[in-house]
């Protein structure tokens, strides 16, 4: 027994020594400046998890305004809300940047059904953005199922008078669901342009999700260069309905599908980007932006897409002020309008930045939902990409392990340049397409802690970019 106790004591001593050695290594891995950075980053996380504001801001936006499709009364209310909130946070200046936006309206709720073997089946369906309406009485036709644009093109005139059903699902072997989305969204965007050319009567598309459920996903589609007389009604059906319809078509290839929608495109409407900034203390002429898009689809509240990105972006400025961190460069927060169906806000901002000869050195966008932080994607030159990746040791303790070359975001990408470092915030992607563009994208789907961790993650990388980025840029002012 004494030998066992002795052995246990020796074992515990070894573990203790090793632990001290590990702590010693951890304590000495940072330079003096990195120790300051580590302390500040920790404080960002402490502050947001105890005194964060983003969750209640999101509750207000989603519950009291809701879906905010460009040109809608709700989008106009969101602009007023955003301007007021930026002023309450105490940004140095806040202004509205005018932009004309598309104004597409859904109209009355869509309906769809078909009959097979004497059984009528109702189908969850929603019109795609910019689609034309069906005739007032609806549209009835036989269905041709295809898996790709190429397969549809190969059918040629066989599509005439038919409804073409695009049924390519997500590749569920892809861990990053955004890659899966990118692998099949072309059928939603371009399907009508391809099929309208050959005289199809309509297009229905499997919803863009890796989940099998009864919620159809809307999204943008375009007719390309087709003349108006060839524009055909286009809608998405739920993933479960797509599976059932595909199975029924195998048993009854001549079944007829009916759907009705009353959407239309109105003249462009006036709107605004909401812009606020904290003036830089050393080089205020250099600008870094952080933002998301204020508009959302109309089916729900636009919580994950992109209410979370909006409130996280403003919380970056809030955390700077809360922790008395004064940026060297001007930090500009932007609530972009019209990302969902046109990116007019992003284009207008970039156009005016060029016209006013503003010097943007970096940007960060949050438009991938409010789930658990995983890291960032980088769109920058080789030098600055390496610089950002060198910050992994500061960021990895907070779960930010993925700092890789990649895209940034639709709203900041027009600012792209050789010496502009653009970054996309990347939370966990597994649940995002459960809610994306659906009636389920509501406030209750957002986890408070995950949202706040995202705000602190974004604040941390903006802090590091502000401190180090420009002095390491290959071209100096």
Topology:
Blueprint: H1 2-27, H2 32-51, H3 54-64, H4 73-89, E1 93-105, E2 111-116, E3 119-122, E4 125-127, E5 139-146, H5 149-155, E6 163-166, H6 177-182, H7 186-196, E7 202-206, E8 234-237, H8 239-251, E9 256-260, E10 264-278, E11 283-293, H9 303-322, E12 329-336, H10 344-355, E13 359-365, E14 373-379, H11 382-389, H12 392-395, E15 402-405, E16 421-427, H13 432-435, H14 448-469
Helix pairs in contact: 2-14, 3-9, 9-14
What is the structure about, briefly put?
By secondary structure, this protein is α/β, with parallel strands linked by helices. The protein is built from 14 helices and 16 strands.
- Give the rounded overall mean pLDDT: 93
How would you describe the shape? elongated
CATH architecture of the largest domain: 3-Layer(aba) Sandwich
Which homologous superfamily in CATH is the superfamily of the largest domain? Answer: Zn peptidases
Side by side, the strands of the main sheet go 1-10-12-11-13-16-14-15
């Amino acid at each position: 027994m004494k030998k066992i106790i002795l052995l246990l004591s020796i074992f515990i001593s070894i573990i203790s020594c090793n632990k001290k050695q590990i702590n010693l290594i951890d304590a000495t891995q940072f330079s003096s400046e990195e120790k300051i950075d580590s302390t500040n980053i920790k404080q960002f996380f402490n502050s947001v998890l105890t005194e964060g504001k983003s969750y209640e801001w999101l509750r207000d936006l989603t519950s009291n305004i809701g879906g905010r499709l460009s040109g809608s009364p709700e989008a106009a209310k969101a602009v007023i809300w955003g301007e007021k909130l930026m002023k309450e946070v105490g940004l140095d200046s806040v202004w509205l940047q005018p932009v004309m936006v598309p104004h597409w309206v859904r109209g009355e709720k869509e309906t769809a059904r078909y009959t097979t073997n004497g059984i009528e089946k109702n189908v969850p369906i929603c019109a795609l953005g910019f689609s034309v309406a069906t005739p007032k009485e609806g549209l009835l036709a036989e269905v041709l199922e295809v898996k790709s644009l190429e397969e549809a093109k190969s059918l040629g005139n066989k599509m005439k008078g038919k409804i073409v059903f695009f049924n390519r699902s997500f590749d569920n072997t892809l861990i990053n669901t955004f890659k899966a989305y990118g692998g099949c969204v072309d059928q939603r965007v371009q399907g009508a342009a391809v099929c309208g050319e050959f005289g199809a009567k309509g297009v229905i598309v499997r919803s863009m999700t890796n989940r099998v459920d009864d919620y159809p996903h809307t999204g943008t589609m375009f007719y390309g260069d087709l003349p108006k007389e060839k524009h055909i009604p286009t809608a998405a059906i739920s993933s479960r309905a797509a599976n059932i319809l595909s199975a029924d078509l195998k048993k009854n290839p001549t079944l007829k599908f009916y759907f009705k929608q009353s959407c239309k495109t109105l003249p462009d409407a006036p709107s605004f980007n909401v812009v606020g900034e904290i003036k830089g203390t050393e080089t205020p002429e250099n600008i870094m932006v952080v933002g998301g898009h204020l508009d959302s689809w109309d089916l729900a509240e636009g919580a994950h897409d992109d209410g979370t990105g909006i409130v996280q972006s403003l919380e970056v400025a809030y955390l700077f002020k809360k922790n008395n961190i004064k940026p060297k460069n001007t930090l500009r927060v932007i609530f972009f309008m019209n990302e969902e169906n046109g990116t007019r806000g992003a284009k207008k901002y970039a156009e005016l930045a060029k016209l006013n000869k503003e010097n943007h050195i970096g940007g960060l966008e949050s438009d991938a939902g409010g789930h658990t932080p995983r890291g960032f994607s980088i769109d920058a030159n080789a030098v600055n990409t390496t610089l950002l990746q060198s910050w992994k040791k500061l960021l990895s303790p907070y779960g930010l392990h993925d700092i890789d070359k990649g895209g940034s975001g639709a709203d900041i990408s027009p600012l792209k340049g050789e010496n502009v470092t653009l970054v996309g915030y990347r939370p966990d992607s597994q649940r995002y397409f459960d809610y994306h563009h659906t009636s389920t994208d509501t406030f209750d789907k957002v986890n408070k802690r995950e949202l706040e961790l995202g705000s602190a993650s974004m604040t941390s990388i903006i802090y590091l970019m502000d401190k180090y980025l420009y002095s390491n840029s290959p071209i100096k002012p």
